[in-house]
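seq as requested:
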Amino acid sequence: MSNDELFDVVNAQDEVIGVAPRSRVHAEGLRHRAAHVLVYDRAGQLFVQRRSFSKDNSPGLWDTSAAGHLASGEDYADAALRELEEELGVMPEAPLEALFRFDASAGTGQEFVWVYRAVVGSALRPDPTEIIDGRWCTPEALVDWRRRSPEAFTGTFLRILDALALGG
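C-alpha cells:
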C-alpha cells in the first residue's frame, strides 16, 4: 500500500468533511472508514488471516478474513468486495450480508468500521504481500485460541469477536 492513497476524512457522524493522504490520516488520527469481511465456508468455518509484517498497523497479527480502508468516494460494500478480491482472490456466492458497524474511536484507530459476512465455495488465493498465513477455524476453536492468546489478534478483530459473542 502506498502512503499517498486518498481517504475521505469524516466527522463524528461519518459524513465526509475532506480528503487526505493515508499518511496524514494515520499520523494525525483523523476519522476515516474501513470495511471488514468475515469469510465462511459452507461448513460454517471462518477464515482468519495473519497480516504481513510489512503492514503499518498490527503487523504479524491475526485479523478478519479481509479488510481495508475505503478509498475516497468509495462506499463500504464496494470496498468490502474489492478487498475480498484483492486479498483472497474470491467473490462471494451471494450478496454480502452487512452484520454491524462500529463508530470511530481510539479502539478502532479512528475508523468507522462496517463488518460484512460472505460465504465462499471456491478456493481462496491469499495475496502473499498482504497475508503471511491463514486458516479456517470453527467458532469453538476461535474462542479457545482467543482465550489462550488474545495478544495474537488485532484490536479491531477482538472487538468483532466480542460483537459476535465469540469473546471467550
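The chain is about 25% helix and 30% strand.
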